[in-house]
Amino acid sequence: MITLSRFTLLAGVLATGALLGACSEQPADVKTAEVKAPELADTAIKNTELQFADVNPRLGEYIKTLSADEFQGRAPATKGEELTVAFLEDNFRRIGLKPIDGDSYKQPVSLVQIDPKQVSAMSLKGDKLPAQFNYRDDMTAWTTRVTEQVEVTDSEMVFVGYGIVAPEYNWNDYEGLDVKGKTVVMFVNDPGFATQDPELFNGNAMTYYGRWTYKYEEAARQGAAMALIIHETDAASYGWGVVAHGSPIKFDLINENKNMDRAQIEGWVTTESAEKLFANIGTDLATMHKKALEKDFAPIALNATASVSVKNNLRELTSSNVVGYIEGSKYPDEYVLYMAHWDHLGMDFSNPTNKVFNGAQDNASGTGGLLALAEYFTQQAQPERSVVFVAVTAEERGLLGSAWYAANPVFPLEKTVVGINMDVMNVYGPMKDMVIVGLGNNNAEDILVKYTEQQGRYAVREHNPEAGIAYRSDHFNLSKKGVPILYAKGGNNHFENGEAWGKAQRAEYNKCCYHKVGDEWNDNWDLRGAQQDLFLFYQVGNELANSRNWPNWNEGNEFRALRDASAAARKE
Questions:
Q1: Closest Cα to residue 492, out of 540, 467, 458?
Q2: To pair with 354 at 20 to 30 A between CA atoms, which of 20, 207, 311, 385?
């Protein structure tokens, strides 16, 4: 039975979502645009009570254990991983989830650490260009190819606008151009953000086409030798320091071709460097922004060449996703999937007083929530469809565990009904607002909104969709395969203390603790908010696990075609 407590609600509005940047990438300058609650919801809040479900009293125990010093910050391929994976397997087994390989819940994940021990300056040839762009000051570069050395020499440079090929928007920046062996230069984000036109792409909200990862992928598909993105703080949602002055070490998956299908060099150039490239052909950044938005845009040669070399140290690693499931009673080959990443940043051995990145909120909370939800599911009637629980590795290294699962799914993705991701749970108490990242993208959200309103709450979109948060957490790798995804969490409008108080808690976490050793368990946390959200996630998954409903991406979404392409697999 569910134990319900009741709390009188106060009216209020706002969801800033400062915490909604995925833990692998927090925007440096988070905007504070306000989102007002719907009038209907506001009226309902004044006259109803919030129903709070204590899904699992062990939630706090799970979070506290996973974030303990003993677990050494849960870094992949360390003693911390051994302890974490053993803890997850033991609990999956105890609560009665079925294993995926004999009696094992582990899905091995092959990783490689790419440490660039030497990156050259970018040598340039052009009538009005400097001799070089300096590494980290004017440009940054790396390779995702699993090789000890890569060199691009005298590669012809060409401006390709936003570097986008989007058939559903009738947009092709590469049309008529052969870029094999060339260096492509492009803007970050997409034309919707640039124009703020709600009819162009997705308006202010970033589409996947605006994401830097997409731009490198498309450049590789086009055959480019080097792909360079022009950094602009507003469009990227973070400063140059995030791009160029963090750790240069990259992690990636190991595959058969060693990533030789990627561009040889990927990187960024500063706005100032881009101005110099454009001045070489007698124009400037502002003019090129305008040209990139023209309907008849054609790529523009920059009358310049670039050369870069990278030397790497390589280290291959093995980690594990942890997967367990409840088999469905009627449709066992159809799957509702819950996901959270178990990993964090490990140890800081240079710190004399606190060496452990405990990652209590990020993401022991989500992993603890996954365990709590799995345990609750096993105590209910057997669902008609199978329900899968996936704790993925290496999110902090670039969403790699989920990428591995997407490329090597334990259960077919075309028969996966929905994915629900939990990354940084609410530890500040019950909230009136439920932030749904990318709200409006798929119709699984309708079910979540329904149950949110039944709690006397209201659903809102993240406050800064231009930052592309919908593409910054593990769920995104399933999105890219067409699986409809829900990524949501309690907002800031605390039922008792109000919006300003909730916003202050999030801001303090970002200041003191996000990706710092200060992200530790706190006995004063109010986990009623996390329980409140877990119950919503349970309701959504339970409804879909006992229905014939197949959610889909909405018309016009960039992932709709992928889902539709596998429709035959879901026919009765």
A1: 458
A2: 20
Q: What's the pLDDT at 10?
A: 27
Residues 430 and 379 in one domain: yes
461 and 487 share one domain: yes
Three-state SS at 556 = coil
Residue 32 belongs to a domain: no
Beta strands in 259-415 (DSSP E): 265-269, 300-326, 331-341, 346-347, 356-357, 385-392
CB hemisphere CA count around 8 (13 angstroms)? 0
pLDDT tier for residue 40 given thresholds of 50, 70 and 90: very low
Q: How far apart are CA 436 and CA 470, in angstroms?
A: 9
Q: Are residues 278 and 386 in the same domain?
A: no
Instruction: Give me the helices (H) in 486-551, please.
Output: 498-512, 528-545
Tokens of 255: 């595959």
523-528 long-range Cβ contacts below 8 angstroms, 24+ apart: 525/60, 525/427, 525/428, 526/427, 526/428, 526/429, 526/430, 527/59, 527/60, 527/63, 527/427, 528/5, 528/52, 528/54, 528/429, 528/430
Give the model confidence (pLDDT) of 500-514 as tens digits: 999 999 999 988 998
- Cβ pair 144, 325 in contact under 8 A: no
The answer on 158 and 230 residing in a single domain is: yes
Arithmetic mean of pLDDT, 32-51 = 43
199 shares its domain with 132? yes
User: Which residue, of 279, 314, 349, is where some domain finishes?
Assistant: 314
Could you tell me which of 418, 415, 416 has the C-alpha nearest to residue 571?
A: 415
* Residues 400 and 500 grouped into a single domain: yes
CATH of the domain at 168: 3.50.30.30
Is 448 a domain residue? Answer: yes
Its pTM stands at: 0.82
Separation CA 278–CA 411 (nearest Å): 49
**Does the residue 37 lie in any domain?**
no
> Do 258 and 179 share a structural domain?
yes
pLDDT digits (tens, 9 = 90+) for 522-551: 999 999 999 999 999 999 999 999 999 999
Render 115-162 in DSSP notation, one character per residue: EEEEE--EEEE-TT--SEE-BTTTEEEE--SSSSEEEEEEEEEEE-TT
Single out the residue in 314, 344, 369 at which a domain terminates. Answer: 314
Q: Which of 165-174, 244-253, 537-546 has the lowest mean pLDDT?
A: 244-253
Residue 48 belongs to a domain: no
Domain span at residue 256?
Answer: 114-314
DSSP class per residue in 309-351? EEEEEEEEEEEEEEEEEE--SSEEEEEEEEEEE----EE-TT-
Taking only the tens place, the pLDDT of each residue in 278-335 is: 999 999 999 999 999 998 999 999 999 999 999 999 999 999 999 999 999 999 999 9
Q: How far apart are CA 445 and CA 120, in angstroms?
A: 47
Q: What is the CATH number of the domain that holds 451?
A: 3.40.630.10
